[in-house]
Amino acid sequence: MTKKIFILDTNVILHDSSCINNFEEHDIIIPITVLEELDNFKKGSQIINYHARQFVRDLDRLATDKLFNGGMRIGEGKGTVAIRLEMATHPDLCNIFLHGEREDHRILNIAYHIAKKQKSRTVILVTKDVNLRMKARSVKLMAEDYTTDYVSDPAHLYSGCRCEEDISPLLIEKLCNQDGVLSLEEYRPHTPPRPNEYMILRNGKKSALATYVEGDSGIESVIKRVKKESVYGITPLNAEQSFAVHALLNSKVKLVTISGKAGTGKTLLALAAALECRTHFRQILLTRPVVPLSNKDIGYLPGGISNRRSNRICSRSTIT
After folding, report:
1. What per-residue string of b and e applies to 32-47 under the rule 16 or more CB within 10 Å gives b?
2. For position 131, what pLDDT does the model report?
3. Domain extent for 133
4. With b meaning 16 or more CB within 10 Å and e meaning fewer, what string describes 151-189?
5. Same domain, residue pair 42 and 100
6. What's the confidence (pLDDT) of residue 66?
7. If we measure between CA atoms, which residue out of 195, 199, 200 comes closest to residue 214?
C-alpha cells in the first residue's frame, strides 16, 4: 500500500498536540506557516496554549537537519514528519485566491505544490476549518477533518445499564425479598452482563433495580437488588440516579463516570456521595473545566432542586 502524505493545519495541533502519532505509517508535512502560528499561541493558560507548547517540545525532540530535508522518523511503525518552507504561489492558484498572504491560503498553497509534485501518492490536507476544506476541494485537493479523537455514535456506547422485559414475576419477587440476590442460573440474561452493570428488570407493572456483582476467589457471581438510597439528604428521582448513587457509594468501584444533559444531577449526586463518605477520605477535590465552550462564559448550568421539584422528572443519565 502506497503511503499517504498528510499536511496538518494549525487548528489540528491546537486540538491535539499528539496528533502526529495518529497517522500510522503515513508521512506528515507541517507548513512553516503552522509553526509561525503556533508561536502566537504558546503563552497562556488555556488548553490550546498547552497543546501549542507541548507540540513544539515534542517536535524539538525529533529535530535534526532531516526535519527540513526529507523528514524524521516519528517512531517504530510510524511514518516521517517534515517541515516545509514557504513556497511561491502556484500559478494555478494565483487568480483563484487573491489574498495570497492569508495563513490558510499559504498552507493551502504548500499542500497544492506537494500534491502536484507527488502525483503517485495521495496528498490530504487535514484541517478542522470547514472553509479551508471547501477551498481545498474547489481546487481538487483532498481535505479531511481530524476525527481521530471523535467518539463513535453515542447510540452504540456502553450505557452502564440495561432494561430487561418479560422477567418472571417470581424472580422479581425473590429479588425484592430480604435477601435481594439472584444467581446467574436463575436469571439467565440474554447477553452476559458486564462487571457492575446495572439492570431494570420488568414484567408488566412489576419491576426491580439490580446490578451484576462479579465474584472472585471462589465467590459466586450474582445479581443483587439496588435500593433507592438517599445520600446526604438527596433522594434519587429515577432509576438512573439510583444507579449513580449506588455506584458512587460502592467502595469496590474506584472510578465512576456519569454522562447526561445539564441539570440531570450529575454534580449534585457526586458531591452528595463524596460528603456521605467523607469519613473514609482525607480530602475531597471538586474540579471543573476552566475553558469556556464556544462563546459562552463559565457559569451555572441549568438545574436545581426547585426546578426538579416543579418538573418532578429528570432526564436520563448513563452510568459507566
Report:
1. bbbeebbeebeeeeee
2. 92
3. 5-144
4. eeeeeeeebbbbebeebeeebbebbbeeebbbeeeebee
5. yes
6. 72
7. 195
